[in-house]
Structures are given as C-alpha cells and as structure tokens.
Amino acid sequence: MCRAAGLWLVSLALALLALGFMAWWGWLSWFGSLPGDLRIQSGRMRLFVPITSMVIVSVVLNLILYLVMSLFRR
Fold first, then answer.
1. Confidence of residue 1 (pLDDT cuts 50, 70, 90)
2. Which of 3, 5, 27, 72 supports an S-S bond with 22, CB 3.0-4.6 Å?
C-alpha cells in the first residue's frame, strides 16, 4: 500500500511540474480570460471573478477523481 501511495505522489508531482512549466511558458495564457470570467475596474478598485475558468477546473478535477476512484473499486 505504501509503495502505491508513493507512486501516486510522484505522479501528482510530475503533473504539477508539467502544469507549472505550461503556465511559465505561456501555454495557459487563455486561462482566466474566457468568456464568462468577470473583470470589473472602477477607479482604483479591481475585481476579477473567474466563473468559467473555475467551472472548467471543477469538471477536470471531477473527471480525474472519477477515474481514480474507478481504478480503486476494482
């Protein structure tokens, strides 16, 4: 069990590293500027509400968790 947990942690770390490099190189520059992401500027106040971006994050995380849970149910 401990060995499997270690493999999952290493896989998660590599996925986060890849995501970090994608953000650093600008491949995720579209994220946060999708239609439905609200940007309100008034004088010195700025408000950013990433509604559409967070819906996409939620769907992707739900799919990943569904796949992981389906693997453990076997």
1. low
2. 27
Rounded Cα–Cα distance for residues 68 and 42 (Å): 44
Instruction: Quick: pLDDT tens for 43-65.
Output: 999 999 999 999 999 999 899 88
- Give the Cα separation of 28 and 61 in Å (integer): 17
How big is the chain, counted in residues?
A: 74
pTM of the model: 0.66
Which residue in 51, 58, 59, 57 sits closest to 35, CA to CA?
51
CB-CB contact of 38 with 47 (8 Å): yes
